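Q: Could you fold this chain for me?
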Amino acid sequence: MPEPRLEGNLMYLAPEGDEIEIANAAANFLADILPLDRLHKPDSADLCAAARQSLGEMGWFALALPEECGGSGLSPVEHTLFFREVGRLCGPVDLLAQALAANAASDAGLRGSFVTGEHAAALIVADGEAWRLFGSPQASHGLLVTPEKAELFPLDAANPQTRPALDPANSLCLISSLPDAVDGTEGAAVWQLGQLGTAAMLVGLGEAALDLIVEYAKVRETFGRPIGAYQAVRHTCADMAIRLEAARAQLWFAAAALKEGHGDAGDHLDAAKHLANETGMACADSNIQLHGGIGVTEEHDAHLLLKHAMLLSRLFGARRSLLGRLLHARLEA
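A: Sure. Below is the predicted structure, expressed as structure tokens.
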């Protein structure tokens, strides 16, 4: 993303040059190993070992990891651009967990195993007195992230109990207790990358939903006219596009603010995640409604986007917690 350019009181930010090339490369690579239609097949949840290792070989897990730590030495901006493409294809949560684990590990050997995909990471989320695990039950480590710290736990003796998952892109397990953490890091850095990743995935998901209905509106006819000719359809598509523009702009700003080390970057991240939550859910829902009867069938892709949005909107900041923090935000002039 270019350096912030000020004209009067306006700031213009947009990906360009190498950043667009990275996004295009990610889109092409992910379309090959994680096509959306995979989710209509059995046993399609999570990252398989082959996909994880392919992603590791290409360095996608280490975009925001410094070069001296074995990463690409890029920034939160490239991390955001990559996960936007992941969101378009309902990429599994353990893909994000793998990247975050690489940033959370302080031990060089363990960090390297996450970067290459040798070891698999799953995401741990508190659930009352128990814990939910999103990712493969065979993952070697679970990652628990809060705004204060990130911790890695060995899962070899955790005895995860499989539960039915609403989102077919992810496995869900319950863990009654956690062992002692084996590695981790203090501070908000990993949480912030998690917020950026999930917000970017939701924006990408919303863009995919808009693309789906726009293409359908061109070919589906009622009363001798494409449904896109009717204002009820056109206005809803316009609303989706406006929501996406707002969420995308805030996402770019938050990523740039984090890259530049702005003091209010955390507040911009909260705003980006809130807008992405609302936008991803609204676009996925409108996509189903405008498709009509076919939109609620198991064979169509529309329900995959909505189910994935429902999960992502609850990770790394849901509505109540985000609005509570934004109420007390103090932005820089």
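A (continued): The first helix runs from residue 18 to 33.
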